[in-house]
Design a protein that fits this description.
Elements: E1 2-9, E2 12-20, E3 40-44, E4 57-58, E5 64-65, E6 83-91, E7 97-108, E8 115-122, E9 127-134, E10 138-142, E11 162-170, E12 173-182, H1 189-194, E13 202-204, H2 218-230, E14 235-238, H3 245-254, E15 257-263, H4 275-291, E16 297-303, H5 311-322
Parallel strand pairs: 13-14, 14-15, 15-16
Antiparallel strand pairs: 1-2, 1-3, 4-5, 6-7, 7-10, 8-9, 8-11, 11-12
Helix pairs in contact: 2-3
């Protein structure tokens, strides 16, 4: 979402929020859903008068229309005992190993017969690693530290993709299953760049439908990326904000390095707005999370539309950078 909005369920307002190119999710209060059909509504700028909070046109690659929403809204029905969070990443300090954790919505004692299991899967479903353990009255479990050194890493010319699977089980079978993409990159990426075995040949990518709208059409994006790859490019640069998650999955599948720029100045906002550091940090933290899932994300950087002769703009940049999270740029 990129707008101020309210969410209504069966004519009751359950949320009023604002997002800048960020996903939104919430847990529904007990008893909100009816038997049979339920109506979910997303209403943009409901009761808000700020122009910057309303869907609008953007003067970038005209006609570009901010429709306020990029992907579909839905209600997900979850089991009583469930996996609420699964995080996974790679530690490459010496030996490349897996790190991460899983969280249940409540601790479950061994006496109930519950167990948790982890798997590392290839795109074709092949199992590379797996383990399981009793719940032992815990709600947080650490992902096993698997040695990944022998695992083929992702690169544009060999786009190997992986998933981490977590399962909650009891004596009758599976209770809940959650799978997330797992980034395992070619560990020679920086070396290949330094030795000029690999050169990035890229193109800027600003997404819009033929009508200029921002609604995310996965088939259209896939055709775009395949066309970019067929023309001899091996990288795309995306700017302004993080993209819907499916975009990075498609970069993984097609085999394109993704360079994610996060500018200080968002469309429609002044460069000294107090909301910019908050919006930038939210996009940055989301980009870091996405980079742990999608190997194609190869660089995350700060971009700033700066007039080098302007002391005012330099001062604004220094003030802005001073309010950012520690070490906000990864490359």
């Amino acid at each position: 979402l990129n707008v101020a909005f309210s969410i209504r369920l069966n004519d009751s307002t359950i949320a009023r929020e604002r997002r800048r190119y960020m996903p939104f999710e919430m847990s529904l209060p007990q008893g909100m859903l009816k038997n049979g059909a339920n109506t979910l509504q997303v209403v943009f700028s409901d009761g808000l008068d700020k122009a910057a909070d309303k869907p609008q046109s953007s003067l970038i690659n005209l006609p570009r229309i901010n429709s306020g929403i990029f992907t579909g809204a839905y209600i997900s029905i979850a089991p009583r005992y469930r996996i609420v969070e699964l995080l996974a990443g790679v530690n490459s300090d010496s030996v490349v190993t897996s790190i991460g954790s899983m969280k249940l919505n409540r601790p479950l004692p061994d006496s109930l017969g519950y167990r948790v299991a982890f798997k590392l899967l290839a795109a074709n479903g092949s199992v590379f690693r797996q383990t399981d353990e009793a719940t032992a009255d815990r709600d947080v479990f650490q992902l096993p530290s698997w040695n990944l050194s022998a695992l083929p890493g992702w690169s544009h010319d060999s786009p190997a993709t992986y998933q981490i699977e977590a399962r909650l089980m009891n004596t009758e079978g599976d209770v809940d299953i959650l799978r997330i993409p797992f980034a395992v990159r070619d560990n020679r990426f920086h070396e290949r760049l330094a030795q000029k075995e690999l050169q990035l040949r890229g193109i800027n990518y600003v997404y819009q439908t033929p009508d200029g709208a921002s609604w995310f059409d996965e088939e259209l994006v896939k055709r775009d990326l395949e066309d970019i790859k067929a023309r001899g490019y091996n990288a795309v640069r995306v700017v302004f904000h993080t993209m819907p998650e499916a975009f990075y999955r498609l970069c993984d599948e097609v085999g394109l390095y993704c360079l994610q720029d996060l500018p200080v100045v968002f469309s429609g906002l002044s460069s000294d707005s107090r909301t910019i550091p908050q919006d930038w940090n939210l996009n940055y933290n989301r980009a870091i999370n996405l980079a742990s899932r999608y190997s194609s994300i190869s660089a995350i950087g700060l971009a700033y539309n700066l007039n080098a002769q302007s002391k005012l703009q330099w001062n604004r940049l220094l003030q802005f950078s001073g309010r950012l999270a520690e070490n906000p740029v990864m490359s």
